[in-house]
Amino acid sequence: VQLVESGGGSTHAGGSLRLSCADSAYTSSLYCRAWFRQYPGKEREGVANIDRDGAIRYADSVKDRFTISRNNAENTLYLEMNSLKPEDTAIYYCATRLQFFCTMTASHYNYWGQGTQVTVSA
Questions:
Q1: How far apart are CA 36 and CA 27, in angstroms?
Q2: 3 has which bridge partners?
């Protein structure tokens, strides 16, 4: 399994970015997929996840600003980020958990992307 992220970059506060994560495993549609982020010196924190049946959960800090979605036919996971704030600046990772249902705990996930930097300036 290989997860390849794209779409990170820099923007100003209030701007938007869209992250993508391509999964080489044809069975990824059967499992939970998620986005995490990591600040320097901190542990990875859950941002959003979507389980096999499409149930979605967001961290309170991104609710109503971020949208997670998946295209099972293309094995691709997306994170649409709007109304970005400087505190959203972090490295963002996609992850796959080999279970049908998701959690917000990084240690529960089996595969990770390489990470993509998101920088939001004031």
A1: 21
A2: 23
Measured CA to CA in angstroms, residue 45 lies from 42, 61, 88, 96 at distances of 9, 11, 12, 14
Looking at residue 96, what is its pLDDT?
Answer: 94
pLDDT at 83 over 90: yes
pLDDT of amino acid 73: 86
Report how far residue 1's alpha carbon sits from residue 30's, in angstroms, rounded to the nearest whole number. Answer: 14
Q: Does the pLDDT value for residue 25 go beyond 90? A: no
Burial class (CB in 10 A: 0-12, 13-18, 19+), 96: buried
Q: Residues 10-26, buried b or exposed e (16+ Cβ, 10 A)?
A: eeeeeeebebbbbbeee
